[in-house]
Amino acid sequence: MSTRRDFIKTSGALVVGFSLGDALAAQGPPSAPGGPARSLDLKQVDTWLAIHPDNTATVYIGFAELGQGASTALLQVAGEELDLDMSQLTTVPLDTTVTPNQGGTYSSASINRGSPQIRAAAAEARRALLQLASQRLGAPTDRLAVARGVITVAGQPQPSVTYGELIGGRRFDLEVSGAAPVKSPREYRLVGSSPARTDLTDKVGGRHAYTQHARLPGMLHGRVVRPRGQAAFGVTPRVVSVDEASVRGIPCRILRRGSFVGVVAEREWDAVRAARDLKVTWDIAPTLPGNAALFTRMRSEQTQDRVVLDRGDVGAALAGAPHVVSQIVRGPYQAHAALGPNCAVADVRPDSALVISPTQDIYGTRTVLAGVLGLPAERIQVRYQEGASNYGHGTQDDVTEAAAILSQLAGRPVRVQFMRSDEHGWDNYGRAHLGDVRAAADAAGRIVAYEYQGWQHNWMNVEPSAQLAGTAPAERDGSLGVSPLNLGSMYDVANLRLVNHRVNGMGYLRGAWLRSPLDLSFSFASEQAVDQLAFLTKADPWQFRQRNIKDPRWLGVLDAVARAAKWQPRPAAAARSRSRVVTGRGIAVGTHLASYGGAVAELEVDTRTGRVRITHLYGAIDAGLAVNPGNIENQIGGQLIQTASRMLKEEVLFNTSGVTSLDWNSYPILRFSEAPAVTAIVVQRLEERSTGAGEEVMAAAAAAVANAFFDATGVRLEEYPLTPARVLAALAG
Amino acid sequence: MAVTFTLNGERRTVESAEGTPLLYVLTDELALQGPRFGCGLGQCGSCSVLVNGVERRSCQTPVSAVTGRSVTTLEGLPAWYAAQKKLARPPALHPVQQALIDEQAVQCGYCANGLIVKAAELLARTPRPTDAQIVQAMNGHLCRCGSYPRVLRAIRRAAAAIQVTA
Fold first, then answer.
1. Given pLDDT bands bounded at 50, 70 and 90, which one contains residue B142?
2. Which neighbouring-strand residues pair with A28?
3. Which residues of A touch B38 (CB under 8 A)?
4. What is the SS3 string spanning A709-721?
5. What average pLDDT does the segment A436-444 reach?
6. What average pLDDT does the segment A51-79 reach?
7. CB distance A495 to A314 below 8 Å
8. Dist CA A280 CA A277 (whole Å)
9. Under DSSP, is residue B126 helix (H, G, I), strand (E, B) or coil?
10. If exposure means fewest CB atoms within 10 Å of the residue's CB, which of A372, A638, A647, B100 is most exposed?
11. Chain B CB within 8 Å of residue A442 CB
12. Residue of B37, B63, B147 for testing the chain A interface, max A β-carbons within 10 Å
């Protein structure tokens, strides 16, 4: 067994002419906890893929399928290097005993970070397979050809040998050297095409099991009992009393650890009723600002300030410029509001645990659970099962901890299904943000100064279940904030200053990443300011941006989206009508970290009711090499509709004691009848590294909506969502 | 309390506590994966089923209310469609299900249950719906992933496919 590894270590290179055959161990099924472990070493080919005797392959992907189609795209990457078709490829659910640790499925990372690892492993496997085939077929590797995993000597249909015949069911036992040749993008046939998603037939047929469908033998149904809607993060609500008599007559058990209260029952409806009826008296500190005082409190806080970037002399440039604008944004807390409240199942034993979870990061969740349960991480198996509409760090980990705590207390497997009010009221929301932009242009319409100052608190580091059970609340040190990646850097501007004001989050709501974190607020302010400079210099907003952008990739998305929208140049607000319903169009650029996004919005404003209807959104993304452009188009469409929802409707409501947005009436999202038409444009860049495509056009779309509103009304907006009341107030000036 | 009803063409009797919503009987006792919990308030449509051909929110329907009735879930739609169209055998998928795949309209797919059940009801009653009729029918079903435009296209496509079948 060890000879090959030793050989590689000592020789440092692969040579033609070895035989894997006798040295290979049979590859069994994924191991159970305590059983023989699959290789999870990222350096081993076997960690990433297995070839089966029937000439199919399983690819072990460390990123969660959230409905974004990442698993399909990563199979394309593997199939491309291996010369296998999609029908020969499959993947398995994430599991800490089966799939490698590629990090969490966030920051649009699946393709960005995932594809290089999978490409390298697949290329390594292909090289080894060709070496084996070379011996078998008696021809040098450079004369071999592969199609669908069948290797032949180029130009001759026979003899042939398949991958399955060469290594099916056995290990490669081979390190990923990184030196195996990969295909040139010009040779791609699978990458860059748009095979259908592999998960949809089961999803439409009712055969796809979401976490909500997960069951374990002997399982109890659990529910959490909490105050309806979270209070300020810093002070944990305290249980004053639990009136057990209030659920007398319902077959259930009440379980408690500190202020964490839950109920378990054999039948789900009994757990639902018990959680609903159980009378718990809470001591809650009414220390939230409420919506009314949120932004004045944020601005008045003692903040931790950081100059993120200071280039040139912004002050002097602002003072000397003929055209100076300023723009404010007040961006609300917004909820993940998964369509299906999160759910998890846990079986916690005295010395081990199995947890089925919709987490974005099975390994990260395992580490946290180790602390919550007092078990070593390696004794905890976390298995991923897809939940509903996962667009960031919502309640997935919270519900997982709740199930684990209740299982530990009950001594039985427990399934916890959050109720709608748990999901809405105890979310880690997308954070509220306050932003100030000042920008200036010279007489020739060139941006000469740009300054952004932003206020927000960090992400929270403790889930509600752990906090209620006794862990002290804490914020993360590192959280996305004001950044040159999405503020100012798209423009060619000599004087640029960015300042981040970190607010202490202890008196605020829970925060974590929500699809394109903070970016909608950033660009809402930033791109309105740029648009206003165009307006002051009597320039068309597209042409003004063209003049001020040098980077061809930013120009690429800007021009692509303008052309798709058949944009006819004219200054904004130059075609305003006096009718009751006025129309407008706006353009903007923006991103989330890496890719390039451009958007155009077309909308109508009813000036009497204040109702805004977005009629059409166009979105363009340049994400480098687009592995599956069809899938990216679908992602763009989803981002545009979600942006419309977030710009028009979404805002977490809360008073000083807690959140009051607890269902779809108190936290409405966009409905079918309100959906704009969408046009998606993928700018394909075969020679560029693949970057994310799941959140990169939302910032541009949000700002395009604000700019279209200005075009229709001549009024700049300082706050979203654009509810009728807010719109009427803005129009009244 | 024993309740007898027809589920996807088969007679079933279940034993449930008084007032138990149909949803929990379908998911827990009968292990179906089509109808699913979304809000428990009748606001989102994730749990929709057909009761005697009419779309109902199973989270708000006590199981006793379907006594003697015919309940069709996502899983039973192909057979329900075949019976309607007097087809010799059920297709693998209802035309709405197939159209959602053809349009690659589904993202996470959690809302798809309700969207499909509602669209199937619509097309059974109104085989050639206008866009306005589609939007009106679907407006009580929420989707978080933003699939509405593709779902609209898929329902148009399904309507066209049904015309060809008929």
1. very high
2. none
3. 339-341, 388, 420
4. HHHHHCCCCCECC
5. 98
6. 91
7. yes
8. 9
9. coil
10. A372
11. no
12. B37
A23 pLDDT exceeds 70? no
SS3 content of chain A, % helix, strand, coil (to 5): 35, 25, 45
Identify which of A206, A417, A669 has the shortest CB distance to residue B142.
Answer: A669
| Fold observed for domain A212-285+336-425 | Aldehyde Oxidoreductase; domain 4 (3.30.365)
Judged by CB atoms within 8 Å, which residues 290-349 of A form the interface with B?
Answer: 337-341
Q: Of B28, B52, B73, which residue constitutes the final position of a domain?
A: B73
Q: Is the peptide bond before A552 cis (omega within 30 degrees of 0)?
A: no
Q: The dihedral of CA A346, B112, A339, A458: what is its sign?
A: positive
pLDDT at A329 over 50: yes
Report the SS3 class of residue B118: helix
Residue contact B144–A338, C-beta within 8 A: yes
What's the average model confidence in pLDDT over A279-288? 96
pLDDT at A432: 98
Residue recorded with tokens 């209807």: A613
Q: What is the CATH number of domain A2-205?
A: 3.30.365.10
Res. A626: pLDDT tops 90: yes
Interface test with A, best of B144, B150, B152, B157 (most A CBs within 10 A): B144
Q: For A33, phi and psi rounded to 5 degrees?
A: -60, 135
Read off the pLDDT of residues B68-108 as tens digits, 9 standing for 90 and up: 999 999 999 999 999 999 999 999 999 999 999 999 999 99
Residue A582 CB contacts under 8 Å (≥ 6 apart), including other chains: A576, A604, A605, A607, A712, A713
What ipTM was predicted for this assembly? 0.97
pLDDT, average across residues A461-469:
97
Q: Is the pLDDT of residue A30 over 70?
A: no
Give the pTM: 0.94
Q: CA separation (Å) from A19 to A47, A128, A138, A691, B110?
A: 20, 10, 14, 39, 49
pLDDT in tens, A374-431: 999 999 999 999 999 999 999 999 999 999 999 999 999 999 999 999 999 999 999 9
Angle in degrees, CA A528, A533, A534, rounded to 5 = 95
3-state secondary structure of A560: helix
A39: confidence class by pLDDT, cuts 50, 70, 90? confident
Place of tokens 């996502």: B74
Tell the burial category of A187 from Cβ atoms under 10 Å away from its Cβ (0-12, 13-18, 19+): exposed
Distances (CA, A) of A85 to A150, A197, A452: 11, 14, 49
The kind and range of the H/E element at A534 are helix A519-536
Phi and psi at A30, nearest 5°, equal: -50, 135
pLDDT of residue A681: 98
Q: How far apart are CA A71 and CA A306, in angstroms?
A: 39
What CATH number corresponds to the domain at position B123? 1.10.150.120
Residues of chain B with C-beta less than 8 angstroms from the C-beta of A420: 38-41, 43
Nearest CA in chain B to A694: B145
Residue B17, domain CATH: 3.10.20.30
Mean pLDDT of A616-639: 96
Instruction: Give the Å distances, CA to CA, from A441 to A407, A445, A487, A530.
Output: 62, 6, 17, 9
| DSSP line for A76-95 | HHHHHHHT--GGGEEE---B
pLDDT band, residue A2 (cuts 50/70/90): very low
CATH number of A290-334+429-732: 3.30.365.10
Structure tokens at A431: 């954070």
H helix or E strand, kind and range, residue A346 = strand A343-348
The predicted structure's pLDDT at residue A380: 98
Nearest to B108 among A337, A390, A637 (CB): A390
Rounded distance, CA B81 to CA B95, Å? 9
The structural domain count of chain B equals: 2
